[in-house]
Amino acid sequence: MKTIATLLVSLAAGLLPAAGLAQYGFTVDVPHQGAVADLVQLHSFHNTVTNTGSVADTYEVVIARDLPGDWIASLCEGTICYPPHLSVITFTLDPGEFTQLLVDITPLTDQGEGSASVTITSQGQPALSEQFAFTVLSSGLDVLLVDADGGLGYETYYQGALTAAGKTFGTWDRDLFGVLAAEELGGFGTIVYALGSGSAGLTPADLPALQDLLQAGGQVVVSGQNVVRDFCSAGGVHYSAANRLWFRNVLGVDYVLDDADDSTVSGVIGDPVAGGLALAINGGTGANDNTVQDEIAPVGPGAASLEYSPGRAAAVRASYGQGRSYVMGFGFEGISSDASRNDLLARIFTWMAQQVSGAPGPVSGLFVRTPVVAPNPFNPLTHLMFEVGGDTPVPGSVAIFDLRGRLVADLFSGAFYPGPQDLVWNGRDRNGRIAGGGLYLARIRVADQVRTVKLTLAK
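The chain above was modelled as a monomer; its predicted structure follows.
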């Protein structure tokens, strides 16, 4: 994204001839505004500010933070990085000169979603101002909500139901942040796609990563009035024989017809998710947007869960590998009451949490005891103590980071056997040098579960 701010201003007499005009202007090139990052891993948003005016200008940059717990957000300009407590910086550019403006966000010990809003203002002409928001989601949240409704605000219906279900989640604004990389999708156990009446938030490029996620025991929920049509119907924006086959084999669903023209759905008798449910999908406190919903069909591993009428599927559930999926041919946001939305999503998650027949269940409860650091503060060494549950060895690692997310020391990488663990950090970095005094973070990873603890090296 590139924005341009330009304004002509008459220069004061004595500086230039009376007819002289100063042109103030600048552009800001913002390649991306969203990212997924592991705890204790700094993410830098690289932006370029260029003086496009005819005179030198000074720019004020103000950062406003909305961050969980102990997360850190800071600014770098050119080669200078400013401390996290500083909220206002300035720099000067000659005509045609540019500089790199970095917005650094580091998620520390708390899982969540954090943002930093940055405002850039010309001091030569304060009417010229641009504002951008940058967001980081920490990997390891229960759910990644992909908001792709075209800016209609329907994500709030999902957020309310996720909160009611007791899930930790982050929201990825597909229109603002762009396509999710495969490694970003892989940072979450459950992906929920809120697609409204389109399919722009789910692309063919996402399919291999989603297949890997399901194969490994992940969960995928898709809600959208035209998504199955767009992938599975000739003429659909994402249609190909390969994409249709993927939907059939992996999600267990195929397309029947558009504009189902129904305002209610009912659970299939005996269905483990929706059995006994009767839902209005328009009116009430819902978004009232279900006008072009798809009639879909279960195929292969799929089974009908909700129907518009007997034999006409509105939602299909399926198992693939060790994972499970739930595809709705209508907009979840249109369900007519908070209670009904909460109930349906809770039922979906309950079914998804059950073990797939013939596949090992997800590993849970691996941290039997909360990690403890003792002594803390310490000098010259300290112990990191925790206990691993289960009955088989699991892969894991322990590493020390500074507050900018830079790796200081690797304490362990290998297999943890069930039982108490006790690792020692001697206060030295990877090169054997004594680390500087101050606050550090130990990231303990056991299989796919992560805990982060603070430790202070006394001077």
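The chain has three domains: 2-134, 140-353, 367-457.
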